[in-house]
Amino acid sequence: MSAPAAPEAGAVPTTENCRFCWMCRHACPVGHVTHRETYTPHAWALEIESVRRGQIVWDASTVSVLYACADCGLCRAHCATDQPLPDAIVAERAAITAAGAAPAAVYDVERRLRRHVESGAAARSSNGPRRASSTVGLFVGDISDAARARAVESTIALLAAAGVPVTEVGADRPTGRTAASLGLRDVAVDLARAVIDDVQSAGIDELLVLAPGDRWAFESVYADRLGLEWPKGVRVTDAIVVLARALAAGALSFGAPKDLPPYAYHDPCHTPRLARDYAAPRALAAAALGPDAARPFFWREHRAHPCGAIGGLNVTHPDIAARLAAARVDDARAAGARWIVTEDPACSAHLAAHASGGVEVQNLFELLHERLVTSSRPTSGR
Ligand code: SF4
Ligand code: SF4
Questions:
Q1: Of the residues 58, 123, 164, 340, which has the maximum number of CB atoms within 10 A of its CB?
Q2: Closest ligand to 20 CA?
Q3: pLDDT value of position 123
Q4: pLDDT tens digits for 44-79?
Q5: Among 127, 370, 347, which residue's Cα sits nearest to residue 260?
Q6: Cα separations (Å) of 286 from 117, 247, 248, 257?
Q7: What is the structure's pLDDT at 121?
Q8: Do the beta carbons of residue 129 and residue 169 sit within 8 Å?
Q9: Is-contact 253 225, C-beta < 8 A?
Q10: Could you tell me if 248 and 153 lie in one domain?
């Protein structure tokens, strides 16, 4: 089956609007950690428009610059006119990738994901959804990643303790959002279609997700970038919000904190581009780690910087991915924290790989599972 047509751009290209605008420059995390004007929102727009005008061409150098954007959404989240600059950058990458001019690392990712699509189709025909007992699903995702597998197991245990049994959906399925960010549109469509098929066959009316990035994929990337329709009647909810409601209702409790270090809660990558309950993960962290141990990041909530495990930067610009992580660790240390806590397993794994100077990283789902004491009431309060 061929990929659906890409959604059409407006009459005036976003990049035309952005190329001489500096109004979100301060929000761009890549510009913040690299101190390079070339790596700021208006500069990426100007680059695209300069190619369009024939002033420069896409070559190894200019393409490398285009792939330095993290696709984090902070520019659009801080734009007074809601310009979809990240979508415009990704659309340009898709054209470059289709022309065979993307960085070699992008095609390595394409080959790996293509194998995933083919092997996943075979697995699905023999496995089907696990624990298919509930109309509430949990998006499992690519559990070949050990950090994600641990977070999934902890989340299922926590939800069960909260009185919310789940049907596991999309095991071993990447969402396709990273492929879409890299301009690998065809493979992104195939991955997304496989997820949508799983959701439709699972018999659920609500799908819980581990992290904002998954919700952004289902609510925005599929429609806005891939031209795909999410199954009608299936709402997408952050699992952490369901657990916070259970905590508030008295259906979950955690061991009394003792001698635990001060911590900073990291809002996961993609948080600023979503409507999100910022209080939910913080309430859970406070319950497990103590009400006075939180040390807020400066870059948090609607201005939260990504950790670096985003947009495929790990493969195209690992140096920038590492600098973004180091900036989070530095920010935590400056706030007086010795732990960084976050629920997104990709964020916790990436930050842990770059932690230094006495700062450690904990996954919030795993931490909550370790400190879970009892279910004091039979219902979750949902
Ligand atoms: S996204 Fe908005 S604020 Fe940022 S450069 Fe474009 S027009 Fe300006
Ligand atoms: S998506 Fe993120 S990294 Fe890219 S231009 Fe916008 S703020 Fe900067």
A1: 340
A2: 1
A3: 54
A4: 999 999 999 999 999 999 999 999 999 999 999 999
A5: 370
A6: 40, 11, 12, 9
A7: 54
A8: yes
A9: no
A10: no
In this prediction, residue 12 carries a pLDDT of 72
Domain count, the chain: 3
Beta strands in 78-142 (DSSP E): 136-141
The response to whether residue 75 sits with its C-beta less than 6 Å from ligand 2 reads yes
Residue 112 and residue 149 in one domain: yes
169 within a domain of the structure (yes/no): yes
The C-alpha atoms of residue 280 and residue 239 are separated, in whole angstroms, by 10
71 lines ligand 2 (CB under 6 A): yes
In this structure, which ligand is nearest to the CA of 84?
1
The residues, any chain, with a CB within 8 Å of residue 250's CB and separated by 6 or more, are 376, 377, 381
Question: Does residue 248 sit in the same domain as residue 160?
Answer: no
Contact (CB, 8 A) for 233 and 139: no
pLDDT in tens, 78-128: 999 999 999 999 999 999 999 999 999 999 999 999 988 887 654 554 445
Within-domain flag for 68: yes
Q: What does the alpha-carbon distance between residue 64 and residue 62 come to, in Å, rounded to a whole number?
A: 5
* Position in ligand 2 atom list of the atom nearest CA 86: 1
pLDDT tens per residue, range 214-235? 999 999 999 999 999 999 999 9
Please work out, in degrees rounded to the nearest 5, the angle formed at the alpha carbon of residue 181 by the alpha carbons of 264 and 113. 105
Answer yes or no: is the C-beta of 18 below 6 A from any ligand 1 atom. yes
Q: Is residue 268 part of a domain?
A: yes
Q: Is the distance from CB of 136 to CB of 164 less than 8 angstroms?
A: yes
Task: Give residue 24's domain range.
Answer: 14-98
Looking at residue 173, which CATH number applies to its domain?
3.40.50
> Coil, helix or strand for 47?
helix
